[in-house]
Every structure is written in structure tokens, then in C-alpha cells.
Design goal:
Length: about 210
Amino acid sequence: MGIRQYGDDASPSKKQRQRDKVASSTSSKLGVRICGMQVYQRNSGRFICRNKYYGRSLTVDGFRSTIRQFLHNGHRLRDDLVEPIVAKLQKLCRTLERQEAIRFYTSSLLVIYDGHEDGETSAACPSSSSDRPPPKTNANENKQKGAPSRTSTNCNSVILGEQNVDVRMIDFAHATHSGFGDSCVHVGPDSGYIFGLENLIATFKILVEEN
């Protein structure tokens, strides 16, 4: 997330490498790039997986197409998930706008949802489905543990009444704040991160408009 991908303590050579990555990816234009994605396809019984190298190669249009792919389960676009995802992103954006002197350099945003749709029963749920990882996309670089899962252990009785959606900020190794006692103190909200959130929100909203 954001338009800067190095910490205050980075060496000059690392700073330049990270600047080059930003300049050649959607990070420079959108303030966000995809660094990992996994989404289950119900029509094939397989996962679509994307890594950070795929994410770096995307254009702005490619980024938007990949977000659409993230919400497509092989049968249909899960446009019912857009509203709860956008609501969480907007809440996060409002929170960051109120924060002073904090930066989340090199951090990521994990977006995750349960691919099990409302009203589904055992007919669409194989015996191993309760252990199936939910679809997820990571908007920067690292992995997240402890992702939410269904609480039921009996596949035959699973019927969800609401979307299971979560958005998490992760990877804070290079986060900094005036209260940390760091030598470099930043002023105001993290505008680069907020810029990325605003564009990510806009991308999800476009999906509904186009659909």
C-alpha cells in the first residue's frame, strides 16, 4: 500500500530499487499493487493463484481486471461482496485520515472473504470444504495468518446468513510514529496509503457499475 515502499532506515541502494518498483507498477499511479491472490473457482474446483511478480507487471486496467477476477468464482461475479468490502475500506480510510505522524511504509492490506454463498447446503460442499482456504488478495507483499473461517465443522449443516468479509492491515516492520522515538518524524496523515485506499475503493465500486 502507498506510493513509498521503503522504510526510513533503508540504504540508498534499496531506496532506489524500491523507487524503481513503484515507478514500473501500479503503485505509482494508484498507490496500491497486488502482491498475491488466491481465489477458488467453483466451476473447475481449482484455485486461481497470483504472485507478486504478476502484480508488478499489471497496468492500471490489468489491476482492475484482476480485482474483478478476485470476486469471480467461476460462475458469477460476487458483486454482493462489494458493499461490505467497500464499507470496511472506507472505515479504515477515515481512521487513517485522523492519524498524525504515523507511516505504514512497506505494509500490506489483506482482503479476504468466504466463498461459501448464502443458502448453499451440502450439495455444493464437498467433505473437505470446511478446510478450504477462503479467497484472499494481498495488496502488497507478505502473508497473513489466522484468516477467518466458518465455525461449523459439519459441512452438511452449513448455511451462512451473511457475507464473511474481512480487511486487515498487515506487515508493520517499517511502520513509524512520533511516539516510537525514531530519528525521522513525519507530519500529518499517511497520504500515500490513503491515496491507495481511495483508488482501491473506486476500483471495487466500478465493478458494480459495470456489472
